[in-house]
Each structure stands twice: as C-alpha cells, then as structure tokens.
Write a structure and sequence with these properties.
With 513 residues, this protein is an alpha+beta fold. The chain is 41% helix and 20% strand. Keywords: Kinase, Transferase.
C-alpha cells in the first residue's frame, strides 16, 4: 500500500492523519498547545510549540503504524487562516503567532471600513475587513509595535514558518495568501494598494505558489527524527476552510458545507471569485476554477464549552464520576426542552463575531427570559443560537451565490444527534453527515494526490467520503424556528449600536482588572 500524511495546523492543536490512496485512515495523532491570552483581545500561539507538534505528530503516526516509510508518497498541509508572524532578517521570530482570534487590531479595521478604502481593498482581495486578517494586524504593528515593525524583514503565517523550518523555503500557497487581505484575487499577486497602506513590500512576503506545488529535501536531522525519507514531497496544500469543503465533498454548485468545531463556517464552491457588495462573505482560492465563498463565525463549540463550564459545573462533575461525556449529558438535558426554548433567544457572540455582522465588539445576550425559564432552557437557547447564527450566514451567502441545494455538515458538533436535527429544523432542509474523518487533513491528502498525478480531478471525493447519514427536518420544530428567527435577526440590528459602548466599558473596567 501507499500512503499520504495529512497535517492540519489548527488553533489549539495539530492533527496528523495517515491516509491510503482511497482515503481510508491508518493512523492518527493530535498534539495540543496553548492559546496565549494574557492581555485583552490577545490570542497568540508559540510558533516553536506548533513546529514541535508537527514533528512529534508525524513521528507518532509513523511509529504507531506498521509499514515501510518509503511507502509514504507525500506529506500535505492544511492550516488555520489569517495567522501572522514577524521575523528578523535571519528568520528569527519577533512575535508569537498572531491568530485569527486576536482582536487587538479592531480599531484599525473599523477605521479602514469607515474610510471607504476598506471596501476597495475587499473588492480586490475577497477578504472582509476585520481584525482577524493580517492586513489589519500589519496596521496595528505599524502603529503600536513600532520597534518590531521596523525590525521585521519577513512576514509569514504558521504554515510557511513550518515549511521554512523543515525545508528552508519561504513560500505561501494562494489559498493562505488569499486570506491575508493583501492578495489580489484577480491578478493573483500581492495587492499594491494594500501593501502601500501597510508600508510593507513584496520582498518581505513569501513567494506565491499553487496549493499543488511541493518541495523535497527535508533537513536530515528532522527526517531522522520523524522517520521520513529525506526526499519525500512536502505539498503546500491550502487553508483549513477550503480543504474542509473538499474533504466533505461539498464542491458541486449549491452544495453548502456547514462546519461547527471550536468556531464555525458556512461555505460553497463556485467557479470564479464572487464579491459581496455588502462585504459579508469571503472568497478564497482552492484550485483553478474552484473558489470557496462563505462566512466564518467565531462562536461555535467554544460557546457550548462556556455553558458547560459556567452553568453546569455539577453535571460536569457527575459526568466525570460516571465516566460519561459531559457534552452528551448536557445535550440530553437540552433535548427535553421544546424547540425554540419556550421563546428564549441567545446571541452567541462571546468572542466578538465575524460573519455575518463582522463586528469584533459584538457581545452575547439572552433575550426573552421569564420566571418559567430554567438552566435547561438557557442551554437549549445557547445551542439554538449557534445554529441561528450559522443560518444568518447562509442567508447572506444565498444573496451572493444563489440558493442552497444541499447541506453537508461536519465538525465536532456533528457527533450530536440533537445538534444535527436542530440544523435540519432551522434550515428546513435535509442535512447530510459525510462519513469522513478530519475533513481538512483529508482535503490536504487529496490535493497531494493531484499534485503527484495520482488523480486528475477532485471528482474522486464521491468515492472517498464513503457512507453518509441524512437528517430530515421535523415540521413541528421548524414552525417554532420560523417565528423566532426573524426576532433573532431584528435584535441583531437593534443591538449593533450598543456593542461598541459595552465593549469599551469592558475593556476599561473589566479586562483591565
């Protein structure tokens, strides 16, 4: 047999999966690392910790699997988007990894939006103006971290850093570059206006390459540590969001991938870049004539974790004593409350929000609380609020690319029957759960197959993802959601004017403590 290793560089862990050429899994490793949040709005990672996670993850998968290492055809990468590292002339990091979740550039993103220049740049880059993007982060570094900005000879993301450490190359694939907010998707090069605004030059950025490009020539000591041949091809791959669409076979027109992990996203593939006049959706490169259009949300499973840790501590302890999964216990509790949580609505903006409102100042709220409502109602409302938000993104997406014809759902939430049913009911459409494992890593492996000429197109995904299960909407449930969803959306608009005020108060009086 022959194998491909898919590596997914995530926000809180790196996952390494060994696939055969039919997409079947033969080995898996998951290496965790911390997200540093010592200051308000900070969300950083240590690039060295992530690099070590890659080395150890690949080594572990190979050690646990009984096969000849010369049967590995390639190692291919997926990565979280929007990360930024400043490095000196010797490629030594001057910063940690500024992740997508870092909101310290919020004021610079807001000012750029208000100026009108932001819309001009968005229309050329396909990346919404938001503090997540390296465009805003570079403006923040320029204004507030002057010493670092002046010393920085290079800027790159975490995947590029890993490739530099492994192979000594400084290159970035179109998909990751596309998500930086400084890459022109129409001429496939760095955007002159965005670069002029940030004050950096193309010489400070990696060389642009296609996702199917690859390099050989591992550093000998690293090849030895990982038990890999020195000449194994390392394929650049793409961003985690675009590869997830590929990995769940949501690549045909109108087929939408809905993902809820720690965060979440709604995405569809088109044959050309699509720009939203209202600036709500992204457009990211996957392959020639394959662009992933959609919207990401900050608040997915992380909101469920917040509810578990802050409202259900006793149940969390009980589950541990009984050897149960706390999330399973909590979803059983939420399932006993009727759809719509008896009129209780939750806006899940605990970490600001990206799509569809693109407001880093957004904050969470319960609306409609009465004496009748219990913790179980609040829990059900939390879960429903996450799905309401994803549906709001889908409504914006449909304005741009047309109606949804099918829904493929994936991510950690897909293990929950309640959440899958909730998704079908809110969307009033069947929801299919593909039987694919670690969809972004699988997508990276399939890109490697194309890079090496093993396949000619991505039509192989029909075969690779295997079995699926479909959930049908229940009329009794979606009737409640039809009434509540318009209230959810109207509240969004009415609260918008107050988000900045409450966020400013929290920064001054709460986060400063």
């Amino acid at each position: 047999m022959e194998f491909i290793i898919g590596v997914d560089l995530g926000t809180t862990s790196t996952k390494v999966v060994l696939f055969d050429l039919d997409g079947q899994v033969h080995g898996y490793a998951n290496k965790l690392y911390p997200l540093y949040q010592e200051l308000p709005d900070m969300a950083e990672e240590d690039p060295e910790e992530i690099f070590q996670a890659v080395l150890e993850g690949i080594r572990e998968v190979i050690q646990k699997t009984n096969f000849q290492t010369d049967s590995i055809r390639a190692v291919s990468f997926s990565s979280a988007m929007h990360s930024l590292i400043a490095l000196d002339e010797n490629y030594q990091p001057l910063t940690r990894v500024l992740t997508w979740a870092d909101n310290r550039a919020e004021q610079y993103a807001s000012d750029l939006k208000a100026s009108g220049i932001g819309q001009e740049i968005y229309a050329k880059t396909g990346t919404p103006i938001h503090p997540m993007a390296p465009l805003a982060k570079l403006l923040w570094l320029k204004a507030e971290k002057t010493a670092i900005y002046q010393k920085a000879a290079h800027y790159m993301g975490i995947k590029e850093y890993v490739f530099y450490r492994l192979l000594g190359v400084n290159k970035v694939d179109y998909s990751i570059a596309n998500a930086m907010g400084i890459f022109n998707i129409f001429n496939m090069d760095w955007d002159e206006q965005a670069l002029e605004l940030t004050g950096i030059t193309p010489a400070q950025l990696p060389e642009l390459v296609a996702p199917t490009d690859y390099v050989c020539g591992l550093k000998p000591e690293l090849a030895q540590f990982m038990n890999l041949p020195i000449d194994v091809p390392f394929v650049f791959g793409a961003s985690d969001g675009t590869l997830s669409n590929l990995g769940v076979n949501a690549i045909k027109p109108g087929v939408v991938a809905v993902t809820i992990g720690t965060s979440g996203a709604v995405r569809v593939v088109t044959d050309k870049p699509v720009i939203d006049p209202k600036g709500r959706t992204f457009t990211y490169y996957l392959d020639k004539d394959m662009w992933v259009v959609g919207g990401p949300v900050n608040n997915g499973g992380v909101v469920f974790r917040w509810a578990r840790d802050n409202m259900f501590d006793a149940e969390k302890s009980t589950a541990k004593l009984l050897g149960l999964d706390a999330y399973d216990l909590l979803t059983d509790i939420a399932a006993k409350v009727p759809a719509g949580a008896d009129g209780l609505i939750f806006h899940p903006y605990l970490g600001g929000e990206r799509a569809p409102i693109w407001d880093a100042n957004a904050r969470g709220s319960f609306f409609g609380l009465t004496q009748k409502h219990t913790r179980a109602h609040m829990l059900r409302a939390v879960l429903e609020g996450i799905v309401y938000n994803l549906y709001s993104v889908t409504l914006a997406l449909e304005e741009v690319v047309g109606k949804t014809t099918a829904i493929q759902a994936t991510g950690g939430f897909a293990r929950s029957a309640l959440w899958r049913q909730m998704l079908a009911d809110v969307y009033e459409q069947p929801v299919t759960i593909p039987d694919s494992f670690e969809s972004s890593a699988l997508g990276a492996a399939v890109v490697a197959m194309k890079a090496l000429g093993i396949i000619n197109s991505y039509d192989i995904m029909d075969k690779v993802i295997g079995a699926t299960k479909t959930y049908q909407p229940e009329p009794a449930n979606y009737a409640a959601y039809r009434d509540l969803m318009p209230i959810y959306i109207r509240l969004d608009r009415q609260l918008k004017s107050e988000y900045e005020a409450i966020a400013d108060y929290q920064r001054k009086h709460v986060n400063a403590k």
